[in-house]
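fyi for ur records
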Amino acid sequence: MDRIREAVRPFARAALFELADEGYGSAFEQLVACIISIRTRDEVMLPTARRLFKTARTPAQVLALTPEQIDALIRASSFHEAKARQIHEIARRVVQEHGGELPCDNDVLLSFAGVGPKCANLVLGIACDQPRIGVDIHVHRITNRWGYVAAATPEQTMLALEERLPRRYWVEINRLLVPFGKHVCTGNLPHCSTCPVLDMCRMINVTKHR
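which gave:
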């Protein structure tokens, strides 16, 4: 982990962590940002989330907008119309069922349509300071490529990491492996020749590399 921390130092931070560092660290803001990020590159997601939060940051403020107004603010993201309706409905439920503040509760997060373990765990880890592993495509690919786990799906990778990874790294692994996966251990032609952990990697399913 020390080697990876050093390797990713020059690169942009994982998007949700960057938003939290900018002050958008509430559970609701993190959940909304994670929804916007689905099938959307961080380079698009970050300015899109900032644009929405400049207008509305709390569940009550978002609920005061129409789905169409939310859609206009997040239009750069993929599937923006569906996401706008989803964000509006989450805001409505938080206001009506939870007094306007999204609780740090896994069951509540997973009760929202379209919210899965990845977003729930990222919210709980970043906003709520709970030991949770957010397994996205990078965490899934890299930890299986290393041979650290052997799992077919991100959900299975999450369970396998919970069994093996020391808890002190549960939140940090996503923060580190997102930029590591974008710039070093890429999906195609990973930079194995300059990888700082090559001596610990089994290179599972790597047929070509740089």
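The chain has a mean pLDDT of 97. thats all i got for now
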